[in-house]
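Interim report to the steering committee. The following record documents the input for Efflux RND transporter periplasmic adaptor subunit (511 residues).
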Amino acid sequence: MSEHPHHAPLPEGEESPPPGTRAMSIVRWVILGLMALAALYTVALAAFGAVRPVSSPKEGGAADSSHAEPAQATTRYTCPMHPQVVSDNPGQCPVCNMNLVPGKPGAASTTGQEGQSDAGDAGDARRAVPGLVPVDVDPTRTQTIGVRVEAVRRETLSGGLSLFGRVTADESKLAHVSVRVSGYVEKLFVAEQGARVSRGQPLAAIYSDELLVLQSELLQARRWGGDTAAPVRERLRLLGISPADVAAIETSGEVQRALTLHSPVSGYVIALNVAQGDRVEPARELFAVADLSRVWVMAEAYERDVAHIRQGLSVQLRLDAYPGEVFRGRIDYVYPTLNPQTRTLPVRVVFANPDGRLKPGLFGTVEVALPSTEALTLPAEAVIDTGEHRYVFVEVKSGRFEPRAVEVGARTGDRVQVVAGLADGERVATSGNFFIDSESRLRASVAASPSPAASKAPPPPGAAPDCNVDFDAKGAPDKYAQCKACERVHRGMGTMEADCKNAIPKPWRQP
């Protein structure tokens, strides 16, 4: 059987490829090309992202504003009990395990940098209040907490000061009666306190051995004649014996057993310190007589009002003893020093008292009339006074309140003068400002807290001893149990878990 030439075997390496080989080769090259394109695309994206310039806020302008907005709108989460804990993600507080609650978007910028920029826009950094930042209060919450806002306005202050006062005797018309020799009270002519006496009226009869001797010398000197009696008269006068009594002794020519004390002024006996038969000494005060035809009212001015008090200002006195009546006088003297106990300045006001109605010891209100002045005023309740700072919350725009330090002056009724810190027409919170103050302090503490990364308190693996690795469950079962208890109790509380485990006495494993 003959063989056909086309059936002859081909040389090695020249055989025909199997069916479909060419199609598979094309597919393979297409896949390789696609993979190369993908790799080039990935490299290009990485290179573009690595070298793309990041503009600063000053250089980027509006081009970067679209990228900044999502970051500002990020919701931050904080712990209601520990505002220093701030996180970008919801979760639990590492301190107390409470659920974190979402705050306002962009809270960090609102309480931090924006607060500083707002203060800078105000043009006076000295008006910033330490520990406070601007806050935003939505209208619903404003109505809930009862926030009211009122504008600062310029008006005429024609009010005055209201001081506390007490009626006292005029010290220039007060007389103290005493003796200048030792002796005994033989008779009291005025034996009751509060009695009215006239000038020269007898008060008491005093017996004294020394006075008896001087009377005898006076009579003997008169018998000798000449000027020998003059020195004895002068000695009796210096001992408090009136010239009338000395003349009576010389006229009668007899020694008087008891000599009489007379009242030096007309008035009322406001002190009686002696009884009939008492022994008296020169240092002892027997009577105090006050002339109450004119009295003093001692008023107390607070330190903040000292600058407005001066001699000659008109004063009105109102007493509870005489409702509806007004007594008029003028400031007679402003004392040079403050009372160290009450930190007030004594002010003396003089009142005529012809009918004796102004009795020493009465308390009342002294109203001082001040000159009219033109000044900025605001409600007194708008000012928060911590003792260290005085400040208000200014509504810089609807719902946004900014703390502002102020200096205040005189107070008239329910309004107070603004010396510095505010301008005419600015609006301040007059009610509910303590709620705004609390919110401002809370946000300031949040802004001053560490970064969120530092606040995610759970320590990384290995920061605390591992119970299963570092503790020998068989050799030291009690310490191993203490380690597990630390994990159960303090897990999620930051370094407290590590501190608890480290407090377990070593060694943790048997040698």
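Confidence is low (pLDDT under 50) at residues 1-7, 47-72, 106-125, 452-459. The committee is asked to note this result when reviewing the revised timeline.
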